[in-house]
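Progress narrative, work stream C.
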Amino acid sequence: MRNIRNFSIIAHIDHGKSTLADRLIQTTDLVSARDFKNQMLDTMDIERERGITIKSQTVCLPYKANDGQLYYLNLIDTPGHVDFSYEVSRALASCEGALLLVDASQGVEAQTIANLYLAVDHDLEIIPVINKIDLPSAEIEMVREQIEEDLGLDSEAAILCSAKEGIGIDEILETVVKHLPPPKGDPDAPLEALIFDSHYDPYRGTIIHFRVMQGTIRTGDEIMFMSNKARYFVEEIGIFQIVRVPKKVLSAGEVGYVIAGIKTVSDTKCGDTITLKKNPCAKQLPGFKETQPVVFSSIYPVSSDDYPELVLAMEKLKLNDASLVFQKDSSAALGFGFRCGFLGLLHLEVIQERLEREYGLSLIITAPSVEYEIEMNDGTHMMIDNPALYPEPTKIANTKEPYIKASIIIPDKYMGQVMNLALERRGINTDYQYFSSNRMEMIFELPLAEVVYDFYDKLKTVTQGYGSFDYDMLDYRDSELVRVDILVNGDRVDALSQLVHKDKAVQRAKFATEKLKDEIPRQMFKIALQGAIGAQVIARKTINAYRKDVTAKCYGGDISRKRKLLEKQKKGKKRMKMVGEVMIPQSAFLAVLKSKD
């Protein structure tokens, strides 16, 4: 156990975590030069395409240190985006230390501070690393000051490195061996193993990723999950070295996987404790705190026949993404589906893409909303996140919406643009402070509903990519809410209904009807697209009908002949409108969700 080190790499998005993990893998000769590729631990197509880490990945690095001993370094690479902070917190619970990466050109940013607090909460040893020192815009001394002042860490202990160029990698490995504590635990105690992740394999069932806190686990042992008392026999255990490497025994302090033929997906829960049936531990490990979703949206299959496949896909995806929260839902227009809670809009996009790519499903996603508090006339309170559940306005005494405290770190030259953006979104500027001569933090109190729509994208645009954004939930505050319904040919499409602030209702309704006009194909009759609050129509667009020239064959004669043909056509179109249904393509639902350019 003295020769094991468990550590994570944490940082703000785009500060070089995955690149550093690549260099560590190369330096320890875990992968041959022929098999190596960039973003080695980012195994999903979406991660490679977007250049971001979505899933924490584990790898065991064998490293021969300068003292001549062989050490096993269990590295967990973590995401940097705020939407995947739950992945980071779970990874940190399995470690004794963390490398905190800071970009030499951008300095300390919002998620750097947020992830540092997470690591401190878990009582981890922190090693600061200044990355990208090879860039012409690198300001190493300024970053040292920020590490000292903003993070409260010893800047003299910060390691200078360039993950891209391979500078300082040996020093990082030596520091991990010397300064991070080895894991604690008794290999002879009753088994206590913490599940921090899992994924589904169609041939082997659920593969559990776990950290052994106490005791020893062997192939053939009968294990038990503490939460539901489900029992299984261990078929295979091992460690991750890019590929799964089977072992006969894993003991206290080690990180690995277990395969036990678990076909019942719901038996495995993230944060659960694995113990031995014959010698169980006294109590369950603390696990992880429950996630608090902030964005809610419904997912329906395009074809109702695909619903059973969607049920299976959601269960398997929940294994691999513990922050996904869902419950069954139904809609008059779209049939059966799921009401899902997400940690942000990027999280929603990623889940949708994974369901479509990994499970081959075609989906319809409803407009994202947040959870509102409604006070009724009779004094009762209710929480709703679905516009379809919004009560009659006459029965409502008061409505409240959630507010967040947003921390935005920017170069000071963008202060005016960011202020305008936040004030447009009903924000209140409560404070600002300078970190250095040209970097500042602005604090706003904003309604969460205004942030989930497209705030982060707009912030990146106005700050040319230099703005960083982090937020904490504050409280619920009084708000004038209305439900905007979208009617297609007089029929309400509940999947397109949105709860919005009264001042933004007309703007949102106009935008939705314009987008639908572009997406819904023309019919043989006129289609009215309306945005309405109750019975009051606040926006309208019309899709004109295809028109056949029925008078083309009349080449003269009395005008009454033409009139007769036009009247006949008019009656036919009226009859067709009575029975004609408008099919709304999937692209129309997605177009309404996308932000206004």
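Work stream C, second folded protein:
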Amino acid sequence: MNHSDLCLKPIHELLANEDGEPTQFWIPAYQRGYRWKPLQVTQLLEDIREFSQRRNPQPQEFYCLQPLVVKATEKGPFEVVDGQQRLTTILLILRHFNERASEKYRQKLFTLDYETRPDLSAFLDTPSEADASKNVDYFYLFNAISTIELWFSTRGHEVDEIKSTLLNKTRVIWFELNAQDNAVDAFTRLNVGKIALTDDELIRALFLRRSDDNDPDAAGRQMRIAHEWDQLEKALQSDDFWYFLSNQQSQSQNRIGLLFELVAKSDGFGVGTHHDEHSIFHAYSKRLKIPGTASKEWLRIKQMFMMLEEWFEDRTLYHVVGFLIYQGMNIARICELSLHTTKSAFERKLRKAVFARTIGDEDLDALTEGSLHACISERLAELEYDRDSSSIRSLLLLFNVATLLDNPRSNLRFQFESFKNGEWDIEHVRSVASSRPVRLHDQVGWLTLCAGYLEAQNVSDQATQVRLLNSIRAFIKQPREARSGEAFETLYKKLLALFHENDEAPTDQGISNLALLDKGTNRSYKNAVFAVKRKALLALDQSGIFVPLCTRNVFLKCYSPQADHVMFWSKEDREAYQAEITRVLVRFFSAPKEINP
């Protein structure tokens, strides 16, 4: 066909060609793979079902789908330029109809081949969860197949009507490009501006197009890039790798776009055009118009990935880079610091960046160990809970990171994935004195926590323990109107005395009385005494729930000179804790020193 053809085609006309042979559709390598989620699959099924249930429809009425843009090829199959997501889903639905029918009544269906998935037909014939884990396309296809099966499992009596509606009353807007049209150019024109396609999916089309049909290496190069693309995309789907590199919680797919952005920014292109949401794509579009650049640019993408992967595997760089990214430092800036320098010098630059963000603007390399110790001590001493919460959070996180690095024989790594996906409070180790429970509900909750601890632990004064437990139980069992504030006050003071906590003394608001704790756990026991908090924290840790190492160490009293007094958090405990924070941070910032050539 030498001219553009635009018409409406019912689905049944897509099944076979004029000779009765199955119509062949081909998804070229430049296209993104199948990405429809269960919601989109279900919406299509619901729309078709809704149309099938219309009362007294006119004979000429039909349900119209979005355009299917194709181009005829010399070898026979139609190259799908736009609409492959919907076309693939229709094929999956039709295959489901065939599976429900006896062999005698099964229809010939159109075929669909992905250039990058030569074994697609075999997967569709016997889809399995094991095979679905091989690549992202099969993952989405398997989920779509499962969604279709589940949707029809409760609508068996409607299958024939829905099938008839899909085949005979559903049409696509068929647009066939002429022979002179460039399919890749048409693909990008159609999809730039669509929300569904991201920069990296458009860039994929640029890398995987064949610019010269006479190039004997073009097909092999195209398939190699497609295969390596899958490998990079799969590696970035690992959350422990991704959350080391990024603070974005919502981005679960298309993470490979980070690599294109970093390479583009390192060249100074693709930036400064914030009004254009596809600026990175346009930058690569301009760059890849130069013949022979695709392989070179793809090599740069791989080199960027390998550098990030090397940082991830290096235990020191993993922690320092991960901390800086959490602090909001742009990873592109970190990449700049790594250029034209040794590993030790790069690491030193990173530590200096951490120092500037957490301690002060002094020249780190000019500080002696003594002046560094004084600088850190002064910084920690000036922090207050209400005023400096952001700085305290940063320093407590740094303390955790630096503690892990302080032991070179350890292979433990901080869980940035768990930390970035959680909500974290700055928790008082010893509760705020002025926040004693006031409402009856909170008083009962506070007493219940204390009773639970006393029932599970052995305290030195057994007789006092028994009396207090009996008094607590009696208070809780009383009718609401019989519980007096005076009775609670008496119990409250006796319990504080038992746990060596003095409600009249001001609570320490400095970092020596603070630790990081997930919001859910912190809010669950509110202002409980230290011993109760300790028991709850250890239970979390034993059950495998992520608790930052230094928070765990605080409640185990690992920093305290006398760990035998486990029921209370004393002035000596606080001083030892702050001294350990200072010691660890001094060691962190002391090495390695940058060596000038």
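The two ends are 68 Å apart (CA to CA). No further action is required on this item.
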